[in-house]
Batch of 3 targets.
Target 1
Amino acid sequence: MDVNATLLIDGNWRSTPIGSPVINPATGAVLTVQANAGTGETKEAIAAAANAFKSWRATSGFARSEIMTRAAALIGARAETIGRTLALETGKLLREAIGEVRFAADYFAWFAGEARRLEGLSGFGGRAGGQQLVLHKPLGVVGVLTPWNFPVSIQARKIAPALAAGCTVVGRPSELAPNSVVELYQCLQEAGVPAGVINLVTGPAAPITEALLEAYEVRAITFTGSTPVGKMLYTRSAQTMKRLALELGGAAPFIVCADADLSLALDQAVIAKFRNYGQSCVGANIFYVDQSQYSAFLEGFSARVKALKPGDPLQPETTFGPLINAKRVQAIRDLQKAGEEAGFEHIAAAPDLSAAPGAGLSPELYFPPALFAAPALDRVDQAFLNQEIFGPLAYVVGYSNLDELLDRLCQNPLGLAGYVFSENTAQALRIAARLELGITGINDGLPSAANAPMGGVKDSGLGREGGHQGIEEFMDLQYIALGKPLLA
């Protein structure tokens, strides 16, 4: 199989002599062979971005907005095509994949508007009596490093504000899911993004990341992935004083209060836990259920887990497909064993792949979602509750003292997302405010939105993406003081 031209450098699509396969996790088939960028290709991409920055930063916000508006329309129009590519390379349900691409279009539409609203400050009052100006200026070249679980929407969430701010980009998608990102960049090209403003390098992470870290021309790196890698980038970026935006691991608590609407909580629990088969940094981690609701919640959740259907991710009747690779399967097996050792009892599981119709699916990466429970907080190991599950294992714990639960949750070093279910809005808001998290959904298992800031606190990251705050990660402030008044 030929190596595809998956490198975009200075407006040209290129290949490399050696590539690496992109695998369909549902079947084990090789979909394509991606080009493997090394240090040399990455340096070329950085140079192209640095050169293009000179003109892109001078392009008006209105002109950038028009290009991004066209990009949003193209991405939305091709959502089904790009979504199918995404589903094939990740194993994600087709309907979820199409929804992800449409969400990516939302980011470009939102930040197209923000590009028109870039503002500075001005005033009088300097010591010399002249005018004081504060300018917002684009940082420069931005390295964009993204994972495989939401390859298109996370790229969009980072690229769109960078372009709106006037920055240029060198992007690197996960080698597990590059094809849908290639199609995203093709949309940006067709929308009129100039050569060199967006550059894409595919292949193994090490040489690409190293080149981005070493280059002084790269003034910012935005990364979504694990906390250990984020901390490495934080340390290494200090050598060239890069700006960092890090969206890292999470251990999202899902709290069901005594007065919660149980049916709503259960329906949203399935979304928050099993979207993308639990392979989501904001996915529900542990379900903490008030003792008065514990038995009923467990019964309802068990029925919903058993009703999940394995199969081909492209078919509408399928509700769960494969994990991304064998490494994740082994990690989930290890977590299941650790959970049992920590005090959880197995309650229910979905059917395995033998119950699924259709030929050609490979069972190796299919792991049936499963439900585990413990009746009280003091029955389980706190260390297990604090770690990220990142897979289709649901753990339910009963609690009787809300204050004690919240104290425990605030001791977790991870603080990305969480969920609170209560019919008392005032109580839910108090709980949300007390939790040390970047994102909280109240009676909502899917709170992400392009017009809202997303990001974590503590070991879950730095900075925000989305909302009007998202563009600030890619801008510097410059203060200018005039010695003489303009109107003198």
Note: The CA atoms of residues 403 and 437 lie 16 Å apart.
Target 2
Amino acid sequence: MSRQHYIINDETMYIIAKTHGRYTESVVGELYGEPIECFSIPNKILEHNCKYHFQTYASRKDLTRSLSGIRSKHPIILDLFGSYIYFCTHSDRVTENSWFNLRYIDSYYDYNGNTKVKFENNEEMEIDISYSSFNNQYLNAVKLHYKFNLAKEKTYRKDESAKISYEHQRQEMQYINEAARETYLKYMRGIDQINKI
């Protein structure tokens, strides 16, 4: 089954380039089922899915740069929660660039000058890229994943300390309000006493 566009989901393992004469298309592998053919090139699928998650591809690259310092062949955090981290085999200027979901790579090894990748569902695939290049891209994605989680943790800790501070301030305000209420009631009782005289 071929289609024009593809929406990346929880089960998307890879989006690889497949050349048909002068044209390049994509083959998408999911955790279950047969591969899906798509008329768009892998880079276009990634760009389209960044927009699907309310971001541009360029802004996702900028996020990678700012978090990890990676300057080329950027791995991409597709969604805002960091659930989908994809890394590429080539520069995004190359039509034959392929993308892999970090989560589903079980293992990979050198195979006749290329790289053989084993996925979580035991599917194996030979990729036309050297082991050292694939390993470098994989490690960049791991680094991005780590840095993203550190940034999330730091933000969470800030939120928690702000929440604690807010709780403390709220408690103080409650004491102040109770004291003001008691003072007001005492004042009103005093006025009642004066009126009785």
Note: The beta strands are 2-3, 12-20, 23-30, 36-38, 76-77, 85-88, 99-101, 105-111, 114-119, 124-127.
Target 3
Amino acid sequence: MQARDIMTRPVASVSVTASIRKAIEIMIAADCSGLPVLGDDGSLRGIITEGDLLRRKELDLRAAADAGTVDALSDYVHGSSWRVEDVMSADVVSVMPTAPLGEIAGLMAVHSIKRVPVVLDGRVVGIVSRRDLLKAVVAGLPDRIPRGEEALRLAIATRLKSDLNLPREQIAVAVQDGNVILTGIVETELHRKAIKVLVESLRGSATVVDNVKTIADRP
């Protein structure tokens, strides 16, 4: 999946010349925690978030830096100005509509951000939030599997190969009387755990009988 498949659109945004009050009103109306900031030409100029607004002097949370220092002056402007341009973050991480979800999740982790604007030809066409990514995760989770013991056995064997690259001859899968019975040898305990996680995601109400051993377990 790509950014364009999960992004939120249309995007609530605010003008770079707008007031902080206007930005807050838009956030509340759109029920969102961050807004792309657009220039007069519609280009992306920055982003303003709830985090930026929590540094306001009205909340009495200004840093106790020495007056006149660069940090103190920056905090004063950020916490006292009523112009979006002064409070927004100008260094914006954005992606193209074709960006894969793994890339977006990586950017969020590296930059400690909660949302990424999606930009095409200099215009914001959508935004991907952590919540959007979580929705994609849920959509991709396997359903509680096929009915019938043979269907379940085949599904597990197929996923062991496709997901974990384990050939059918390495891990024997049997389904009998509501039990999923696994037998075989794997290299490490991590391999064994991955198999168990995969089977538990597919087994439905079946009980897992785990007879898989690691090389270290062999006499």
Note: The CA atoms of residues 107 and 113 lie 8 Å apart.
